[in-house]
């Protein structure tokens, strides 16, 4: 059985994996972005949680299930 993680643990995992590392963010229909991830976290204020990513001084979002397809380490 898999253990569920809470919001703080999920954000810590995201920060450890992506923050301060060079990545590419590719969202269908938009231009691909390359850069270092400054901040990453989960925005749970909406009905569906979104992953908020700050790269190159701009904020990008994607759904939690789409994160592995959209954000890739270089």
Q: Which features characterize this protein?
A:
2 helices, alpha+beta, 74 residues, 5-stranded antiparallel β-sheet
Describe the structure.
This protein is of the alpha+beta class and 74 residues long. The protein has one domain: Roll (SH3 type barrels), CATH 2.30.30. Helices cover 22% and strands 41% of the residues. The protein is built from 2 helices and 5 strands. It has a 5-stranded antiparallel beta sheet. Strand 2 and strand 3 form a beta hairpin. The longest helix has 12 residues. The protein is globular and about 35 Å long. The N and C termini lie far apart (32 Å). The model has no long low-confidence stretch (mean pLDDT 93).
Major sheet description: 5 strands, antiparallel
**What coarse outline follows from CA principal-axis ratios?**
globular
Structural class: alpha+beta
The fraction of residues in strands falls at: 35-45%
Task: Identify low-pLDDT runs.
Answer: none
